[in-house]
Design goal:
single chain, alpha/beta, Spore Coat Polysaccharide Biosynthesis Protein SpsA, Chain A, 7-stranded mixed β-sheet, 3-stranded mixed β-sheet, binds manganese (II) ion
């Protein structure tokens, strides 16, 4: 595969005000990790009714901050407006279905959800063979999501990270077909545009290598829930595709993904999300970290504080909870607790650590 030195890659994203910061962080990760010669052109789809002028200025500021980066804002107000009846959905998720019509000058594009982190240059992804395909995506482990359409889908893909063949979509007038399908199946679009892509595009959807779009809740470490990499094994077993990802590919991709897709939201401080630190790392590289921290109250519930709170609330419960971990995790947890809580008041913790360590020997 030849990689052009001065290649331009096109990326499409869509957002409303709620997704301003995640989108900014995702774009920042891409720009921080791209090869210095790679030119990036972002096409950001929005509606002026749901994204403020100030938010747009924040997005455009990336074009000033990074070299070889162009930001093009496309106002698609009114598009898919009749879809709002489904509570769970934000309309911008549907915008990706119209890319081939909105960008007639482009033949291919990478689609990124706002809940992604890009950790490597994407030139290698951008040149993947798309002959005969509309879309390539990461295999989603819920292939039964489109079973009700009786289409025998063996390669159900996630719409969050896609390589899209805009030319082929235009040749086959797919935007019209998508629109007709949505009108006919309004109540059956369980996964919104992802359902549309997988059902209408069935014969021309393919898979991306696992490192482009792997889910952040797939873990390469073992813990008490997922000993023996049960978590990734469960994922792989749920796939129906004949072109399955292998276990070793999966492990490698989890350790070193090119695009990490985060269905578990790293900015939600009320839940513990695996690899949330990685998202924070790129949030801190933006010029808006103070705003991000305030917006998601990242200060309030940092994990140290959560631990302190837990300790004070009920020591017995806490010990019970920690004791469920494997020995090495327990040593780690107790050691962290001793450090966090100070030596004086929590003598018992230190003794516990000592006990576990000696138990291990
Ligand atoms: Mn997503």
């Amino acid at each position: 595969m030849m990689l052009m030195v001065n290649a331009t890659i096109s990326i499409a994203m869509a957002l409303d005000e709620n997704f301003l910061y995640p989108t900014l962080v995702s774009m920042t990760s891409l720009l921080e990790n791209k090869h210095r010669h790679t030119r990036c052109c972002f096409y950001l789809l929005y509606s002026s009714e749901t994204l403020s002028k100030a938010a747009r200025a924040v997005l455009l500021s990336l074009g000033e901050k990074y070299s070889k980066c162009e930001i093009i804002l496309i106002d698609v107000s009114g598009l898919y407006n009749d879809i709002t009846d489904n509570m769970r959905v934000s309309v911008p998720t549907y915008y990706r279905l119209s890319l081939s019509a909105l960008l007639p000058e482009l033949d291919r594009i990478i689609w990124l959800d706002g809940d992604t982190l890009v950790l490597h240059d994407l030139r290698d992804m951008f040149v993947i063979d798309m002959e005969g395909y509309y879309y390539r995506g990461f295999l989603d482990d819920r292939p039964d999501a489109v079973d009700e359409f009786d289409i025998n889908n063996d390669h159900y893909i996630c719409a969050g990270v896609l390589l899209i063949n805009l030319k082929e979509l235009r040749q086959d007038n797919m935007v019209e077909k998508f629109t007709a399908f949505i009108a006919e199946n309004k109540d059956r679009l369980q996964w919104q545009d992802q359902t549309v892509i997988n059902v209408v595009g069935l014969d021309k959807t393919g898979i991306l290598p696992i490192r482009y779009g792997i889910f952040n809740y797939l873990q390469e470490r073992e813990n008490r829930y997922y000993s023996g990499f049960k978590n990734i094994r469960n994922y792989l077993e749920a796939l129906r595709s004949t072109e399955k990802y292998t276990f070793s590919e999966a492990k490698r991709a989890m350790k070193n993904p090119s695009i990490l897709h985060c269905p578990s939201k790293p900015w939600d401080c009320n839940v513990h999300v695996y690899r949330e630190g990685l998202w924070l790392k790129y949030a801190k590289k933006t010029a808006y970290y103070t705003e991000i921290e305030r917006h998601y109250q990242l200060n309030k519930f940092q994990w140290e504080n959560r631990f302190r709170f837990l300790c004070k609330a009920n020591m017995a419960l806490l010990f019970d909870y920690l004791d469920r971990y494997t020995t090495s995790m327990r040593v780690f947890n107790y050691t962290m607790l001793v450090r966090l809580l100070g030596d004086q008041r929590y003598e018992r913790l230190k003794t516990t650590v000592k006990n576990i360590v000696s138990e291990r020997r």
